[in-house]
Design a protein that fits this description.
Helices cover 79% and strands 0% of the residues. The protein has one domain. The chain is built from 2 helices and no strands. By secondary structure, it is mainly alpha-helical.
């Protein structure tokens, strides 16, 4: 279980990754950032969809 303070940090980091993605001009790096965005998004989503929270 992720604490609320950690979830807040994850959401802020997700925003930073999205900014980096749109500013990046190198396709290879952009793909890596996209993978990080997907991973972090899945963690945030799974935590928010947990019925025990």
């Amino acid at each position: 279980m992720i604490h609320e303070s950690e979830l807040t940090i994850f959401i802020k980091e997700l925003g930073k990754l999205i900014d980096e993605y749109y500013k990046c001009s190198e396709e290879r790096i952009k793909q890596e950032i996209h993978q990080d965005i997907q991973l972090l998004s899945s963690v945030i989503y799974s935590e928010n969809s947990d019925p025990h929270v």
